[in-house]
Design brief:
Helix content is about 45%, strand content about 40%. By secondary structure, the chain is α+β, with helices and mostly antiparallel strands. It has a 4-stranded antiparallel sheet with strand order 2-3-1-4, covered by helices on one side.
């Protein structure tokens, strides 16, 4: 199994509940096909560098998961079919990227404990 990281941007007109439902739908696609979700982050509503579909902001979400390569195709097909998704990118993590992600998660965990 390979480790992947996917970042997707959802349309800013969604309510919080709709955004969470959409993220849960994509997580379900992964888990139903045998993927193991390593990390999930919701970065919230952010301004984009340039307008996409006449929208200048979007909800950014990150999912890190371990899966077989065929599952990535199913996930990306789901992204393409869902009109709530503005953009997405999925990247296979190499060993250096995996180490960096683990360090970053540990750092974020410490910040959450202090707060």
């Amino acid at each position: 199994m390979n480790q992947y990281e996917t970042v997707f941007i959802l349309t800013p007109v969604l309510s919080d509940d709709q955004m969470k439902e959409t993220v849960a739908k994509f997580k379900k696609i992964l888990t139903d096909n045998g993927a193991e979700i390593v990390n999930e982050e919701t970065w919230g509503l952010k301004k984009m560098a340039y307008a996409i579909q006449k929208k200048s902001t979007g909800f950014y979400c990150l999912l890190e998961f371990k899966a077989e390569p065929t599952i990535v195709d199913k996930l990306e097909t789901g992204f393409r079919r869902d009109e709530k998704v503005i953009r997405f990118i999925t990247v296979k993590e190499d060993k250096h990227m995996v180490a960096y992600s683990e360090k970053r998660r540990a750092k974020l965990g410490k910040k959450e404990e202090e707060a």
